[in-house]
Amino acid sequence: MEYDYEGQKKGFEEVKKGLKETDSIVFSADITNEEALVLQLFKEKYGKRLICPEAKAYQDFMKAYSSMSGYHLFKGDLHALNSSEVVMSLGAWFQSESVETIALIRKTLEEKKAKFVYMHPIEDATLQTIVTQFIKYEVGSEEGVAALLAHTLLQKIEVTKEVEDILEELDIGYLSAESNVGEEELESMHSLINGKNTTSLIIGSDVYTHPKSGQIAKLIALLEEYAGIHVVCIPPAQNALGIALVCDLDDKPKGRSVSYKSCKEGTYVNTDKCVYVNEDMTTLDVAGLNSISNDLGLDTKTLIDYSNQLPEDKGFQTLYEDDMKQPCIYRLIPQEQIKDFSLDEIDELPVYDGAVIYTYKIDKPVEEEKKNMGVLSGSKQFAMATKLLDGDVISFEIEGVKLVRVFKIDTYMKGVIALNPTFDIELSASLLSSYRFSRLAFEKINNQKIGNNDE
Q: Which of 239, 253, 269 is nearest to 428 (CA)?
């Protein structure tokens, strides 16, 4: 069942009734901070489960990160990024990450002539003119790559005895071999960074849904704490950061579920940790918020009334009416947290044999979505490995979700990983919460089954 705000915001009472009668509330990461606050109060008062897969994965990553860094947020920001002499990225596919952040990164790299170390399993042809060093690692080996980064960048830095012991216990030869990241590549990267005043590391959405994302988060946090690297963890969706701070999210829905769509009243938090008002709001009207919250005991009549109840211990601040006119009302300041220093031993890194697809979310107009079939893009090498021809229509499943795609050969691509940009997974919890890479088992529409099966 789905409840949303369309047209002239009709059916508020029906929406409120639906939220009260359901067991689980499912929503995407485009709701405002104030809506997240109201839904959190529904959870606290009525025991509702809150399901937002993208924000949940990001929330879990940041919790692990803060347990090692001692702060509830990453310290890097776009100002530091803009002034960086070296920029690195791990697990960030630049064709799907935050448009705002990517635009600034490109500007930094093109205008400031910063060195750029791009780390990803897929070579991105759109970045060729700005990449200084491309480190291609094996699919699924992000934990190993994070460990190699920590070992390389902290080897000549004074760290605690606990960290020193962890770094000494790493099997660098094994990690290097299994991730396909050579020691010479790491030394080359280190030489770019060595002696530089400002270095930034961008963490992308691949990492948040990795099975060992918590371990990766802790390893990256060591770089922020000891190597002085400015880490920026790009949120996987518009307000994933704000929701992760406001809501106590659950893994899976139980019982009856409703899908809640945003009334778009309120504020968001962007990659720069900047709190800003939804630009689509022509007024500060909160009819939608008021209608669903009037049974929660909130003394709220205006947007500021809601905003000023956002949790201060998460960095939110008191607002005044004039503040709403600012493009950035204020920035969240990282708050100190109690450290819980622990790292698991790195197990065997996963192996992805055969043809692999990379699924990521993109935004497209509804009209375009309805007119065009989705495209699976792959190299000539991928086509040979899977025996696919340009124009073949295939069906396959990812995490129980069936997708139909037309295969297209992209002559600029290399390797046996195909791109599966997807705009039809908005609230598919299984897709949004799963690792972006998966092995491909497919059927042509004529039912001839080919490809490798994911056992």
A: 253
278, 32 Cβ separation under 8 angstroms:
yes
**162: Cβ contacts below 8 Å, ≥ 6 apart:** 341
What are the tokens at 154?
Answer: 């902290």
Which tens digits make up the pLDDT trace of 314-358?
999 999 888 888 899 999 999 999 888 888 888 889 999 889 999
Q: In whole angstroms, what is the distance from residue 232 CA to residue 241 CA?
A: 12
Strand, coil or helix: what is 421? strand
- Residue 181 CA to residue 135 CA, distance in Å, equals 7
Residue 410, class by beta-carbon neighbours within 10 Å (0-12 exposed, 13-18 middle, 19+ buried)?
A: middle
Contact in structure between 26 and 243 (CB atoms under 8 Å): no
Report the pLDDT value the prediction gives residue 232, as an integer from 0 to 100: 96
- CA–CA separation, 63 vs 386, rounded Å? 40
Whether 329 contacts 204, CB under 8 Å: no
The number of C-alpha atoms within 13 Å of 229 and in the hemisphere containing its C-beta is 28
Count of Cβ atoms closer than 10 Å to residue 337 Cβ: 17
Q: Does domain 356-451 have CATH number 2.40.40.20?
A: yes
- Domains of the chain, by residue range, sit at 2-55+238-326, 65-233, 356-451
Q: Are 50 and 248 in contact (CB under 8 A)?
A: yes
Q: pTM of the full predicted structure?
A: 0.92
The CATH code for residues 65-233 is 3.40.228.10
